Amino acid sequence: MSEHQDPLSQLWQNQKVEQADLSAVSKKWRKVRLKQRCYVALDFISLVIPSIFIWFKAEQIDSFTMAMVLCAICLSVVMVFYITWLRRFSLGWSNASTEQHIQQLQKQIQNNIKIANLSLHSVWVVMVVFIAFFWTLYYFQVFSPEKLMDKILLSLKINAVVLPCVWIWAFRRKKRFSKELTELNLLLHGTNS
Amino acid sequence: MSTDFSQVLQEHAALLGRVAATYEANFHLRQELLQEITLAVWQALEKFKGDSSLKTYVLRVAHNKAITHVAYHARQPRNDSYCEVEAPKPNLQTTTDEQLDQQQQIQGMLKEIRNMPIQTRQVVTMSMEGLSYHEIADACGISSSNAGVILNRARKVLMERI
Question: Is ipTM over 0.85?
């Protein structure tokens, strides 16, 4: 290709462009690496601390509550693996061909929408689980009615604060990822007729 | 940052700047994209096995990162109206009419390129960076003949509109 004679290539090469600040890039890389390590540590802590707590408090917890807590932990581990699998394409860079990269990117955004949907639906699932949990405690008379009522009120207060926040957060994420997917599809087709 | 990688990045700095300009009109977002592209290329250099030329490899990683960036920043406007950082203005006192004309032509060309579909954008800019049909096809994941067809159509559009 004789780009030196080609006026378009000459024009292209003559454009004035900004250059990246390499020291800033190096600083950013250190930050990214620290962030990744923090995420790994957080995942580890979120699994280890509840396990330690349950281990030491096992004698004080009734068998039904213990079974529920263990079920919740098992479910959380499964969810962590599933979400990690859905995020498998979100690498920092890609040296695949652009065709493959775009397919992976589309798949990743679709997976992100799935994760946001899961978070949205987890709100009512948590409510159903709580109702089932307290109904079983009541049915088997694990606690006195006053103690059970205290526990229900406390759970309701916590849920009244946490669940709407989770719902709003998940809804916004779903909206954002849907817009990303639309934008990507627009880019793929271009705005030129 | 290792000296070798740093040298490679410095050698390809202008090329990476042009890739960023292909995807972002907004000065602030373009600066951010350029940093992201540079970081992605730096990370990817470790995995370079020499299957293609270094320039092709760098361009492939840079374009992939740019596509991810523009999809991620879908909520923000693509033009210069949203800009917290002022873009440097050309020095009108030392700029000749010919240079001004050239700058206008470049801006016109960039505007046309930014409106093209991603694949066309990539093919035409890689060609202007001096890559062969085969190298372009390899980077884009399409056949050489397809790359040729896309390039000829895009060049025709560009020549007509500039």
Answer: no
